[in-house]
Specification:
113 residues, alpha/beta, Rossmann fold, five-stranded parallel sheet
């Protein structure tokens, strides 16, 4: 399975890619939503780990575009924002897993599996 990582913080994106590679997934990294939506070939079997606080097109907008597809991929949203703000995002993104950064390896592994 390809795990598409859409994260503007290069250190976070690299760490996620390394951990996911060690867990035998195939990570692909994108630094912004626009690049991801135009360049990535995403199937319904893939997973997208999506930072909600992206510059330019927000992670919420990227999620909406993905969810409007006939066969959308599974999405895990991540954010370093306070819990109250994450709760608001969860209301706007029903059915989506939302995790708060920093993530532990165990939390990431559980969410991805």
């Amino acid at each position: 399975m390809v795990v598409h990582i859409v994260e503007d913080d290069e250190a976070v994106a690299d760490a996620l890619a390394i951990v996911l590679g060690e867990l035998n997934y195939h990570p692909a990294v994108y630094s912004d939503g626009e690049t991801f939506l135009t360049e990535a070939e995403v199937s319904a079997d893939d997973l997208v780990i999506l930072d909600l606080g992206l510059p330019g097109m927000s992670g919420v907008e990227v999620a909406r575009q993905l969810n409007s597809r006939t066969e959308p991929p599974r999405i895990i949203a991540i954010s370093g924002k306070p819990q109250a703000r994450l709760n608001r995002h969860m209301q706007n993104l029903p059915g989506m897993t939302v995790l708060r950064k920093p993530l532990s390896i165990e939390t990431l592994a559980d969410a991805v599996s």
